[in-house]
């Protein structure tokens, strides 16, 4: 699933081409990907709307529109938003096509069809899409060590599980949680509430470093993820632990191990993470 760095990269690649553009029309080929409203109303409401601003919240991409509307896209497992020329043939698994006034199209492709769109007045869609329930943004300047300490305080759950909880922290998924914990030198099964002040400082710094590296490398591409131009990211070439179980740690040489935490595969170094 695309995480914070991937969705941020998609946003940044789309802004120069979409911000200020008008949606001339919409074709929906698979109505099931439209969560709210129904597909016909979705297409009708979007026709003629100008895109005023693009934002990201957690793993969600937000298109702010004229007249107070907001379109929210949740990519989930395999969703992709790709800019193409209007004359380009439709690729397999294309479910929605947004026609822009300038002759470009924005296409939604989703192999597994888990991704969803939400459209409505901004205040309403924040509720229906679940954005009101998200925790703070880890890269927000207001997110400091004290905020992280308050999130972890008194929690017996493993720190890896806390990092993945979107109600506590927005945008972190399995890839970057593993990388953060390695950079911080913390075992993923450590109870979040057991972290000392120094460990919380390390984790906070590691969170910033892992996410900023992911953005700088245009995201992590293993299977489906591409940016808004259809290009893969490069961050998979720089991962320290994720996807490397059974291989030697690049720092100490010990064999990286894998455990399951809340059903999620977790890779760590038994030598570097305590």
Automatic annotation (TrEMBL):
<feature type="domain" description="FPG-type">
    <location>
        <begin position="240"/>
        <end position="274"/>
    </location>
</feature>
<dbReference type="InterPro" id="IPR020629">
    <property type="entry name" value="FPG_Glyclase"/>
</dbReference>
<dbReference type="GO" id="GO:0003684">
    <property type="term" value="F:damaged DNA binding"/>
</dbReference>
<keyword id="KW-0227">DNA damage</keyword>
<keyword id="KW-0862">Zinc</keyword>
<dbReference type="Pfam" id="PF06831">
    <property type="entry name" value="H2TH"/>
</dbReference>
<dbReference type="InterPro" id="IPR000214">
    <property type="entry name" value="Znf_DNA_glyclase/AP_lyase"/>
</dbReference>
<feature type="domain" description="Formamidopyrimidine-DNA glycosylase catalytic">
    <location>
        <begin position="2"/>
        <end position="115"/>
    </location>
</feature>
<dbReference type="InterPro" id="IPR010979">
    <property type="entry name" value="Ribosomal_uS13-like_H2TH"/>
</dbReference>
<feature type="active site" description="Proton donor; for beta-elimination activity">
    <location>
        <position position="59"/>
    </location>
</feature>
<dbReference type="InterPro" id="IPR015886">
    <property type="entry name" value="H2TH_FPG"/>
</dbReference>
<feature type="active site" description="Proton donor">
    <location>
        <position position="3"/>
    </location>
</feature>
<dbReference type="Pfam" id="PF06827">
    <property type="entry name" value="zf-FPG_IleRS"/>
</dbReference>
<protein>
    <recommendedName>
        <fullName>Formamidopyrimidine-DNA glycosylase</fullName>
        <ecNumber>3.2.2.23</ecNumber>
        <ecNumber>4.2.99.18</ecNumber>
    </recommendedName>
</protein>
<comment type="similarity">
    <text>Belongs to the FPG family.</text>
</comment>
<dbReference type="InterPro" id="IPR015887">
    <property type="entry name" value="DNA_glyclase_Znf_dom_DNA_BS"/>
</dbReference>
<comment type="subunit">
    <text>Monomer.</text>
</comment>
<keyword id="KW-0479">Metal-binding</keyword>
<feature type="binding site">
    <location>
        <position position="155"/>
    </location>
    <ligand>
        <name>DNA</name>
    </ligand>
</feature>
<dbReference type="InterPro" id="IPR035937">
    <property type="entry name" value="FPG_N"/>
</dbReference>
<dbReference type="InterPro" id="IPR012319">
    <property type="entry name" value="FPG_cat"/>
</dbReference>
<dbReference type="GO" id="GO:0006284">
    <property type="term" value="P:base-excision repair"/>
</dbReference>
<feature type="binding site">
    <location>
        <position position="112"/>
    </location>
    <ligand>
        <name>DNA</name>
    </ligand>
</feature>
<dbReference type="GO" id="GO:0003690">
    <property type="term" value="F:double-stranded DNA binding"/>
</dbReference>
<feature type="active site" description="Proton donor; for delta-elimination activity">
    <location>
        <position position="264"/>
    </location>
</feature>
<dbReference type="Pfam" id="PF01149">
    <property type="entry name" value="Fapy_DNA_glyco"/>
</dbReference>
<dbReference type="GO" id="GO:0008270">
    <property type="term" value="F:zinc ion binding"/>
</dbReference>
<keyword id="KW-0863">Zinc-finger</keyword>
<keyword id="KW-0326">Glycosidase</keyword>
<dbReference type="GO" id="GO:0034039">
    <property type="term" value="F:8-oxo-7,8-dihydroguanine DNA N-glycosylase activity"/>
</dbReference>
<keyword id="KW-0511">Multifunctional enzyme</keyword>
<dbReference type="GO" id="GO:0140078">
    <property type="term" value="F:class I DNA-(apurinic or apyrimidinic site) endonuclease activity"/>
</dbReference>
<keyword id="KW-0234">DNA repair</keyword>
<dbReference type="InterPro" id="IPR010663">
    <property type="entry name" value="Znf_FPG/IleRS"/>
</dbReference>
<comment type="function">
    <text>Involved in base excision repair of DNA damaged by oxidation or by mutagenic agents. Acts as DNA glycosylase that recognizes and removes damaged bases. Has a preference for oxidized purines, such as 7,8-dihydro-8-oxoguanine (8-oxoG). Has AP (apurinic/apyrimidinic) lyase activity and introduces nicks in the DNA strand. Cleaves the DNA backbone by beta-delta elimination to generate a single-strand break at the site of the removed base with both 3'- and 5'-phosphates.</text>
</comment>
<keyword id="KW-0378">Hydrolase</keyword>
<keyword id="KW-0456">Lyase</keyword>
<feature type="active site" description="Schiff-base intermediate with DNA">
    <location>
        <position position="2"/>
    </location>
</feature>
<feature type="binding site">
    <location>
        <position position="93"/>
    </location>
    <ligand>
        <name>DNA</name>
    </ligand>
</feature>
<keyword id="KW-0238">DNA-binding</keyword>
């Amino acid at each position: 699933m695309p995480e914070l760095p991937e969705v941020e990269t998609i946003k940044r690649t789309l802004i120069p081409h979409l911000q200020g553009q008008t949606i001339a029309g919409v074709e929906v080929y698979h109505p099931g990907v439209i969560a709210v409203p129904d597909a016909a109303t979705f297409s009708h409401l979007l026709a003629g709307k100008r895109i005023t601003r693009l934002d990201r919240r957690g793993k969600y991409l937000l298109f702010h529109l004229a007249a107070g509307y907001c379109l929210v896209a949740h990519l989930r497992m395999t969703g992709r938003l790709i800019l193409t020329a209007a004359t380009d043939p439709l690729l397999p698994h294309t479910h929605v096509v947004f026609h822009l006034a300038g002759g470009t199209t924005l296409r939604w492709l989703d192999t597994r069809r888990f991704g969803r769109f939400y459209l409505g007045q901004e205040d309403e869609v924040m509720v229906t899409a679940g954005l009101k329930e998200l925790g703070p943004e880890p890269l927000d300047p207001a997110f400091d060590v004290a905020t992280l300490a308050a999130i972890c305080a008194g929690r017996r759950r493993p720190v890896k599980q806390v990092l993945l909880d979107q109600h506590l922290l927005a945008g972190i998924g399995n890839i970057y949680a593993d990388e953060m914990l390695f950079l911080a030198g913390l075992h993923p099964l450590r109870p979040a509430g057991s972290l000392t002040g120094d460990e919380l400082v390390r984790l906070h710094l590691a969170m910033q470093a892992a996410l900023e590296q992911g953005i700088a490398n245009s995201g992590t591409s293993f299977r489906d993820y591409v940016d808004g131009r259809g290009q893969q990211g490069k961050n998979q070439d720089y991962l320290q632990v994720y996807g490397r179980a059974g291989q030697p740690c690049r720092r100490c040489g010990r064999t990286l191990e894998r455990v399951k935490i809340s059903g999620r595969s977790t890779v760590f170094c038994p030598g570097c993470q305590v």
